Records
---
Amino acid sequence: MDIKILGSGCANCQRLEAATHEAVDQLGLDASFEKVTDVAEIASWGVMHTPALVIDDEVVMSGRVPTTEQLKELLAR
């Protein structure tokens, strides 16, 4: 599984990254993580509000920080 965290590195971006790592660990998934901070690259994903979460090249949410439980649901799809 390939996971990207899109955002400038703000507090919400850091919270999303930490919660996503926690959800991946709880599910026992094998995932690689990448932080994308370049504004042009973030825009190329069609994201207007950060932080955003990309799983296997699909933007699954943006503009908020979901709970660990919500992230586990997104990751289990």
Note: The chain is about 40% helix and 25% strand.
---
Amino acid sequence: MLIGLSVDYKRMELLIYHANQCDPKKCSGKKLARFELVRLTKHINQLRPFLVLSPFSEKALSPEDKGTRGLAALDCSWAHAEEVFSRVRLKERALPFLVAANPVNFGKAFKLSTVEALAAGLIILGEPEHAKLILSKFSWGHVFLELNREPLLEYAAARNSGEVVEIQNAYLS
């Protein structure tokens, strides 16, 4: 490797569909954009080439999804999210069981902030350093990794979506 050459070019591209429906002071997506770690869009069609994290997907995100152009998340109300996913065909994946560390939903399962969702996706797709980077911008970011260390390691080691679901079910039972 050449001295001084940044490894940033290897990072997966992150995109957030942002509907301006949240408190700007608490918005993890906007904070990531200020650090130029994600790109925000108001255009749903820009999500098409990305793997989109969706609670409505019937398939779980897994390491078999590696090689995707980028990872996208929706930063909008649940009602708006349902509308987005019902009218546009996207390549979607659901995140498995994880616990939130953000101050608004601390300790609640499946109630992840946008940064937590993207970080979880990055870890499952084999980019843990990228996940740590985006979480490092939040005082509670390391707590998300600590709370979810074991399941994230197991999900990242799974072969496919079916195995991720089996691992999730073991945690839920």
Note: The longest strand covers residues 13-18.
---
Amino acid sequence: MKKNIKPGDKAPLFTLPDAEGNNVSLSDFIGKKNLVVYFYPKDETYGCTKEACSFRDSYDDFKDAGAEVIGISSDDEASHRSFASNHRLPFVLLSDKEGKVAAEYGVKPLLGILKGRVTFVIDKEGIIRKNYSSHTDMNSHIDEAISMIRTL
């Protein structure tokens, strides 16, 4: 488990299945796009739906700034398909069923129970430029990420 991942660190590489079962790798984006990778606890829960819909509503701003958004949780592909469809999410959702990627990124559970909610901004070179964690203020993840993306 990677601990204390911080700005300036190289982002741990990963390959995870998307909602359709296709593998998506961090390396697919390196050299091409800045990324916002956000880890969230669970599809269709109040806070996670609010956060995902905020990313959806700001998605054009991220795209205009040259970034792609990726959401990661431990939910399976079918859950992600339903969640994305129900809320018209235009970005990729990845399944980290065993939590290995979350662990590599140092995403820790809240009170040892709730899965972590952490957002990372990764530049085109694969370097983490910002990480932000808040379990209760979902909109701040979007504000913090777009603010950093605009500086890259």
Note: The helical segments are 46-57, 59-64, 77-87, 100-104, 138-149.
